[in-house]
Amino acid sequence: MIHFNEKNRVFNLSNADISYQISIEEQRFLAHRYFGKKLRGDTFRGDYPIIGRAFGTNPIDAEQRAFSLNHQLLEYSGNDNGDFRESSYQINFSDGSYVSQFNYKGHEIIDGKPDLDGLPQSFTETDEQAQTLKITLEDAANKVQIILNYTIFSDYGVIVRSTEFVNLNSESIFLDKALSMSMDFSHSKFDLIQLSGSWARERELIRHKLNRGVTKADSKRGTTSHNYQPFVALVDPDTTEHTGEVFGVHLVYTGEFVSNIEVDEYNQTRVQMGINPEHFNWEVKSGEVFQTPETVMVYSADGLNGMSQEYHRFYQNQLIRSKYKKEERPVLINNWEATYFDFNEEKLHALIDEAALSGVELFVLDDGWFGKRDDDTTSLGDWKEYKEKLPNGLKGLSDYTHNKGLKFGLWFEPEMISEDSDLYREHPDWILGAKNRQSSVSRNQYVLDFSRSEVRENVLNQMRTVLSDVPIDYIKWDFNRNMSEIGSRNASVRDGEILHRYILGLYEVLETLTTEHPDILWESCSGGGGRYDPGMLYYMPQTWTSDNTDAASRLDIQYGTSLVMPISSMGAHVSATPNHQVGRSISMEMRGHAAMAGNLGYELDLTELSSDEKFEVKDQIEWYKKHRKLIQYGRFSRLISPFDKNHKAAWMFTNEEQTQAVLFFYQTMARANDSFDQIRVVGLKPDQKYLLSHNGETYYGDELMYRGIYINHDLHGDYQSKMVEITAVD
Ligand code: DGJ
Questions:
Q1: Is the residue at 327 inside a domain?
Q2: What is the pLDDT of residues 83-119, one digit of tens each?
Q3: Element (H, E) at 330
Q4: How far is CA 499 from CA 44, 434, 452, in A?
Q5: Distance CA 579, CA 591 (A)
C-alpha cells in the first residue's frame, strides 16, 4: 500500500479507493502532492510550478530565487522559515530562540500500525490490514526531530496521521504548539462544513463558502465541548448528501482542540488540526518524545453520506473496543427526567416494575444516589450510597432490578467535586485551579485535578468499592461543566501541561476501569453531548447524545451527529410531553420514531402514562428489538436534511445484504396545499423486488431508488412522522 519512488522522491499511499502522495523537494522539504481518489501510479511528481514571486524568501540560496516555502504546498508547515501561513508547531529552545527548519532525514515503512502510548487510537487486528509510513524530519542545529506518521488501511478511504517531537538535545525544549496534522490543497473551491452548537443544541451542521483568511473552530473549555466538534470537512461546492467530493478531518482527542483552515493569497487552502495551543506549553526533556493525538482523515467521492458511512464503519471496526461493539444494545429506562433528584426506593421500584412490563431491558439510576445529594449543591466526590433514599442500599436496588429481569446501571460524575463534600473537606487543594486564585464554580461544582495521580487513585478506588459491592451492568460517566482557570495548585506541574496531563490521566483511569470491568456497558456523557468525540468512543461505545430530548430538536442533533458518529453510539430517549427542555408537545409515535433512530431508551415516568400510551411503548420496544440490529449496525443514509429549513427530515437504515431497510420521515411543521416529496430510497439492489409496509405494494429496487416514492402526502398537522419497512421479496 505504501511505496517510495526513489527516482522521483515521491511517497505514494494507495489502496483500492484513495491515494495520498508526498514528495521530497530539493532533497529536504516535504511537499504535499495529492489526497483523493486513487491514482494509478506513483511516477507522477506533480507539476507544481516553481516561479519567482515577489516577497518570497529563498531558503536554498540566492541563485534559486524562484523557490520559496510560502509558495509550496507543504506537508507539515514550519515556523518562521519563510512560509508565512499558519505554522504546525512552535518550539521554544532553551537559549530563547524559536526559529527552526526541519528537513527530510529518512523514512521507514512498516506493516500494521504502531501503538500510541496512553492515547485513544485506531487499531488493526492484523498487520496485513494497514501499513504505516514514518517520515523523520530533523532540525540539525537544534538536534530535534519531528516524525510524521501516516497509516493507510486496506479497506477504508482513510488516512490516519499523528506527529512526534523527539528531543535529542541535551537541554529541554518547550512546545507552544504541536498540531497533529497539516495539509495544503492547491485551490480553495470548497465549502467548509463544521459541527458547531451549544448545550442542548449540539452539532448543528454549518456549511459556508470558504473565504480568504483563517477560519478557526476550536474549544477553550477544557474538553471538546458542546460548541464545536473536533471535525471539519472541505467539500466541493456541488457536493450533496449523495454525490461529490468530501475531505473530512477528525481528531481522536477529548481535550481542547483547534482546527485552522487558511486560504492564502493564491487561493490555496491549508487544513490543520490538533491540540489547541491556547492552554498548552509542553516541556520535552532531553531524550523524551512528545506524541500528538491522531487525526482520522476520510476522502469520499460519494458525498456526505459516503464520508459518514466511512467514519461509521471505521470507528465501529477499528476504534471502538468494547465487547458490546457489535452486540445489540439494550433498551433502557433512565430515571433522570422521571424523578430528577426526588426519588426513593418505592418510586424507583414502581418505575422498574412498569419498565419490566413494557419490555425495557436496563434500568439506569441517574444522579442523586450518593452522599446526601438532593440537589446539585452537594456530595460530588463522595461515592457512597445515600441510605435515606435507598434504605436497602444500591445492592438492594440492583437485586430488585435483576429479579425483575432487567440489568442495572448507575450514574457517576467521577471528575467532579462539590464544595459540600467529605472529599473537599479533606482535600480542598485537589481542585483544578491556578495558584493563589479562586476557582470559579459552575453548577456548584469544581473539577478535580485529574493530572494528579493521588486524585485519580482516590476516585478509582471509590468506584472500585462500589463496583465490587454491587452488581452493575452499565455505567453512565457524566461531566457537567466547562473547565476554567486551568492551572495547577500542585507545584510540580507547569500550568501549560495541566490540561493535556489531565486528559492523559482521564484516559489512564478509563483504560484501567474498562479493562477491569469488560462486561460493563459504558456510556459517556457531558451534560448530553459535550464530550462526544472519538477519544471517548475508544473507551465507551455509547454517548448520551444531548440533554435535549425533544423529538423535533433531536432531528437536528442526531442528523448533525451522524455526520461522523456511528448510530450504535448514539443514545436517544423518549421523554415526557410537554417536553422538559422546550415545552413542546409531540405524539408518542413521533417521539418513538425519533428515538428509534438511535439506541432506544425511555426517560419519563412510565407509571404516569395512560394505558393506551403504555401499549404504544410496549409496541415500540417490541418493534425496536426486532429491528435494532439493522438500526444500530446497518448502513445509515441521510435523505432530507432538517437544516434545509423545509420543516422535514428523513433518513434510512439498510442491512448489509440489502434485503431489509427502514425509512423514517418526519414533518415538524405542516404547510397548507404543500408540494409532494418524492423520496428516493438509497442502497437497495436495483433488480430486487421489495415490499413496502405503508401501502403493501411491491416495487423493484430501481423504481424505489431512481424514481422514488411518495410517503408523506397524507400527514396532517405539525410533528408527524412515518416509518416504512422495506423488505426484499421473491
Ligand atoms: C447531565 C446529563 O446529561 C443528564 O442526563 C443527567 O445525567 C444529569 N447530568 C444529572 O446531573
A1: no
A2: 999 999 999 999 999 999 999 999 999 999 999 999 9
A3: none
A4: 44, 12, 11
A5: 10
CATH number of residue 206's parent domain: 2.70.98.60
Is residue 336 in contact with ligand 1, taking CB distance under 6 Å? yes
Inside any domain, residue 323:
no
Q: How would residue 41 be classed by pLDDT, with cut points 50, 70 and 90? A: confident
Annotate 693-717 with b (16+ C-beta within 10 A) or e (fewer).
Answer: eeeeeebbbebbbeeebebbeebee
Closest CA to 240 of 644, 726, 725, 729: 644
557 burial (CB, 10 Å; 0-12 / 13-18 / 19+) is buried
pLDDT digits (tens, 9 = 90+) for 113-156: 999 999 999 999 999 999 999 999 999 999 999 999 999 999 99
Total of domains in the chain:
3
Q: Which amino acid is at 49?
A: P
From 332, 478, 536, the mutation candidate for ligand 1 (largest count of ligand atoms within 8 A of CB) is: 478
Is the pLDDT confidence value at 72 over 80? Answer: yes
Same domain, 343 and 312: no
Residue written as grid cell 396532517: 716
Q: For residues 295 and 231, what is the distance between their CA atoms, to the nearest angstrom?
A: 9
Residue 492 has pLDDT above 90, yes or no: no
Average pLDDT of the segment spanning 215-237? 97
| DSSP symbol at 420 | B
Domain boundary pick from 600, 618, 633:
633
* In a domain? residue 325: no
Q: Which of 357, 358, 378 is nearest to 369 (CA)?
A: 378
Q: Are residues 378 and 455 in the same domain?
A: yes
Residue 556 falls in the annotated catalytic set: no
Q: Which pLDDT value is given to residue 44?
A: 63
Which are the contacts of 315, defined by CB distance < 8 A and separation ≥ 6? 534, 537, 565, 566, 569
Grid cell locating 211: 473565504
- Does the beta carbon of 478 sit less than 6 angstroms from any atom of ligand 1? yes
Cα 145 to ligand 1 centroid, rounded to whole Å: 45
Same domain for 623 and 648?
no
Q: Which residue range forms the structural domain that includes residue 415?
A: 332-633
What is the predicted pLDDT for the residue at 46?
63
Identify the pLDDT of residue 403.
98
Q: What is the pLDDT of residue 43?
A: 63
Same domain, 173 and 248: yes
How large a percentage of the chain has pLDDT more than 90? 92
State whether residue 371 is helix, strand or coil: coil
Burial class (CB within 10 angstroms; exposed 0-12, middle 13-18, buried 19+) of 212: exposed
Residue to mutate (ligand 1; options 340, 367, 445, 475; most atoms within 8 A of CB): 367
| Catalytic pick among 478, 533, 556, 677 | 478
Q: Kindly state whether residues 607 and 649 are assigned to the same domain.
A: no
> 438 alpha carbon to ligand 1 midpoint, in Å?
26
**Does 306 lie in the same domain as 198?**
yes
- Answer whether 661's CB lies under 8 Å from 724's CB: no
Last residue of a domain, one of 633, 664, 699: 633
Q: Please say if the pLDDT value at position 480 is more than 80.
A: yes
Q: What is the pTM of this model?
A: 0.97
259 plus 337 within the same structural domain = no
Answer yes or no: 478 catalytic: yes
